[in-house]
Design a protein that fits this description.
Helix content is 39%, strand content 17%. The protein is built from 14 helices and 15 strands. Bound molecules: 4'-deoxy-4'-aminopyridoxal-5'-phosphate.
């Protein structure tokens, strides 16, 4: 069955990579960019760059307008309504660090932070560090065999001692959706704060913050076909009122003296210094582009490609899928073959996939693996990309076994 992506030609890098003999199957790490984004960046830089929120001149006003328009577009993308604010950071990782430092005064020795066993280091290490600074306990929710959080275990591990739950929406290693709404409800029943890592989830489907009910939701623009260097932190009003600024500097200040300063409320109070202006404007253009992509056609295309990927892997002897991937990616190991050797042979054949621990070492350890190869898909991938991948895989395995 041949599957052609109607969006492939909107992403010029796909052609360029093809001319270099490359098949790009690493979109979970970072996605290629649509022409609409490239045009927006060229337009911004060619017509006058300026800082935002400071200058009274025309270029400053234009940049501020485009920057704030993006804030509005992100709000619509996440269906915030009036329930909270969008804060721009320099990436998802910055947003988690902002939260872990900014919420620190709310914690007391013995309080518990609940995460899951599959968290990316970005949603693990900032909490681990906070736990060490404050004498907190980091509680790790176990997984079921198919790679989702075990809700039975969660119902006892999330309890009156829980002060915060931080949970991934879609695993970057297992490709499994997590029961975030249920977990958020469990945490809220105990008045705990809730943080959802949407770095992978935001790319696949639309997620409604009003319905999800979490206090904070985090993602990176670069995985959503936007520029790198931009992160999004959604915060609900009540939760933002409890968050202290983490970084201090220009534009986040209401009044400053040598001994004392007061700070702006969200969102600007959490955006110290010059923000990633071009990146945010580029994210706005990317969201315009994505709003024109028919969501159900895209979801169906991705689902059919994913099915081809998983079926092809399952058909091959000695290959073991890690967990039961549901969308967008699949990680696997091959019996008797070292990941690094296989990755090397795939790379030599122009196949851009990821091998290693995928920034989730505790999960890889818990699964008893030394690493895994991850194939991940974007809007622009075709079945021809997977055919080339499988040809290369078969050749590599023939050499290695
Ligand atoms: N969480 C998940 C699930 C991710 O996949 C990633 C990126 N690999 C991150 C967080 C961190 O994103 P960034 O590196 O863009 O800050």
């Amino acid at each position: 069955m041949s599957l052609i992506s109607p969006w492939r030609t909107d992403f010029p890098a796909l052609d360029a990579l093809e001319r270099q003999g490359q098949v790009y199957l690493d979109s979970a790490a970072t996605a290629q960019k649509p022409q609409a984004l490239i045009d927006a960046l060229t337009h911004y830089y060619a017509n006058g760059a300026a800082n935002v929120h400071r200058a009274q001149h025309l270029p400053g006003a234009m940049a501020t307008q485009a920057f704030e328009d993006t804030r509005h577009k992100v709000g619509e993308w996440l269906n915030l309504g009036t329930c909270g604010h969008v804060i721009f950071t320099h990436g998802a990782t910055s947003a988690f660090n902002l939260l872990a430092y900014g919420l620190e005064p709310l914690f007391q020795t013995g309080d518990e932070i609940v995460i899951s066993a599959l968290e990316h280091h970005a949603n693990l290490l900032p909490w681990q560090q906070l736990a060490q600074r404050r004498g907190l306990k980091l509680v790790v929710l176990p997984l079921t065999a198919d790679g989702t959080v075990d809700l039975d275990a969660a119902s006892s591990l999330i309890n009156a001692r829980t002060r915060l739950l931080a949970i991934s929406q879609l695993s970057n290693v297992l490709g499994t959706w997590q029961p975030v709404s249920t977990l958020v409800e469990m945490a809220k029943a105990h008045h705990a704060l809730t943080v959802v890592d949407g770095a992978q989830g935001v790319v696949h489907g639309r997620h409604d913050m009003q319905a999800l009910g979490c206090d904070f939701y985090v993602f990176s623009s670069h995985k959503l076909y936007g520029p790198d260097g931009v992160g999004v932190l959604f915060g609900r009003h009540e939760a933002l009122a409890r968050l202290r600024p983490w970084q201090f500097g220009g534009e986040m200040v209401l009044q400053a003296g040598y001994e004392h300063a007061t700070f702006r409320p969200a969102p600007l109070g959490f955006e110290a210094g010059t923000p990633p202006v071009s990146g945010v404007i580029g994210l706005g253009a990317t969201l315009d582009y994505l709003n024109d992509v028919n969501q159900s056609t895209a979801t169906e295309h991705e689902a059919r490609l994913h099915e081809l990927l998983c079926t092809g892997l399952r058909l091959r002897e000695g290959i073991r899928l890690v967990g039961v991937p549901q969308v967008a990616l699949a990680s696997f190991v091959v019996e008797g073959v070292h990941n690094a050797d296989l990755a090397h042979l795939l790379t030599e054949q122009g196949i851009a996939v990821r091998a290693g621990h995928h920034c989730a070492i505790p999960l890889i350890d818990r699964l008893g693996l030394s690493g895994a190869i991850r194939v991940s898909l974007g809007l622009y991938n075709d079945s021809a990309d997977l055919e080339r991948f499988f040809d290369a895989l078969d050749q590599a395995l023939e050499l290695l076994r």
